[in-house]
Specification:
This protein is an alpha+beta fold and 335 residues long. The chain has helices at 6-15, 22-44, 66-79, 217-228, 246-256, 277-290, 321-334; strands spanning 53-57, 63-65, 85-90, 97-98, 108-116, 127-135, 157-163, 167-172, 178-183, 188-193, 204-206, 239-241, 259-262, 275-276, 294-296, 313-314, 316-319. One of its GO terms (molecular function) is fructose 1,6-bisphosphate 1-phosphatase activity.
Length: 335
């Protein structure tokens, strides 16, 4: 039996009446090509001179790695000329990126975190790219920041690519979650993980324990129960994992279950969290929900949040449904 490449998979989905419009198929393929280029640069690392700081900062004031900038440019260059997009937005750029005038415009908006977890690059730990696709509001030819302000429920597709021992692209467009592995010899993403599902129960959790003293009470309560193990209220042992790369954490959860938590904390009470709603929270919530999991900010479903600004932050609790529902209930009980 012949292997199913990403292109073949998308074409077959397009043929199923109404499941995948042709322009959206072409856009997803283009994002996949950009991710292949990023993968090659990540794999070359020091051999290509792409490690280390870029000497610049992004809109959040964070130091950019060289590969942050390279990955951002790959995604912009690959997607600006295809005719599927009205505009793009990147975690690394303050304002939306408008399609140059010489290129045709399409009906979609693309948002992306070009290299999630880039602080891990120099130590050879998995990083990734996260993307989200929205429809451009009807009749809009020059999208502004406001046109991107759509809740996650409006996403038409989302996914991520994890650059690890293998490069894997995980994708949803609202009918399940499918994983593809990059065959480097053939240069193609090949379907290897159809219909991915998050187990409802888990004995793993991922959180940065060094911030425990800054957490709100519901998070401390939940984690202390997990740490109590067999002798505690949960009556079983839990293992903790922390990679400090959201893509790697979510990929593990999709593969074998778990809960990933990045709560808000007391160090900066004005911030709703650390992660970005539009570039990380919404696309990962879409993927996880489509795989049978759940994603909240502690109080409500992440994809129901109405964004107020392009680089809005959000607290994140996502993964196996039962665990996400429990920690969310603890937050709601405190209100």
């Amino acid at each position: 039996m012949s292997r199913i490449t990403l292109s073949r998979f998308l074409i077959e989905q397009q043929r199923k009446a109404g499941t995948l419009p042709p322009e959206l198929r072409l856009l997803i393929e283009t994002v996949g090509r950009a991710c292949k280029a990023i993968s090659y640069s990540v794999n070359k690392g020091a051999l290509a001179g792409v490690l280390g700081e870029a000497g610049t900062g992004n809109i959040q004031g964070e130091a950019q790695k060289k590969l942050d900038v390279i990955a951002n440019d790959y995604l912009l260059d690959a997607n600006e000329w295809g005719g599927s997009l009205a505009a793009m937005a990147s975690e690394e750029m303050e304002l939306p990126y408008h399609i140059p005038g010489e290129y045709p415009k399409g009906e979609y908006l693309l948002l992306f975190d070009p290299l999630d977890g880039s602080s891990n690059i120099d130590v050879n730990i998995s990083v990734g790219t996260i993307f989200s696709i929205l429809r451009c509001p009807e009749g809009v030819t020059q999208p502004t920041e406001q046109d991107f302000m759509q809740p996650g429920t409006h996403q038409v597709a989302a996914g991520y690519t994890v650059y690890g021992p293998q490069t894997q692209l995980v994708l949803t467009f609202g009918s399940g979650v499918h994983g593809f592995t990059l065959d480097r010899e053939q240069g193609s993403f090949v379907l290897t993980h159809p219909d991915m599902r998050v187990p409802e129960q888990t004995s793993e959790f991922a959180i940065n324990m060094s911030n425990m003293r800054h957490w709100e009470a519901p998070v401390r309560r939940y984690v202390e129960e997990l740490l109590a193990g067999k002798t505690g209220p949960r009556a079983r042992d839990f293992n903790m994992r922390w990679v400090a790369s959201m893509v790697a954490e979510v990929h593990r959860i999709l593969t074998r279950g778990g809960i990933f938590m990045y709560p808000k904390d007391a160090r900066d009470p004005a911030k709703a969290g650390k992660l970005r709603l539009m570039y990380e929270g919404n696309p990962m919530a879409f993927v996880v929900e489509q795989a049978g999991g759940a994603a909240t900010n502690g109080y409500q479903r992440i994809m129901d949040i109405q964004p107020q600004k392009l680089h809005e932050r959000v607290a994140v609790f996502l993964g196996s449904k039962q665990e996400v529902e429990r920690v969310t209930r603890y937050h709601q009980e405190q209100v």
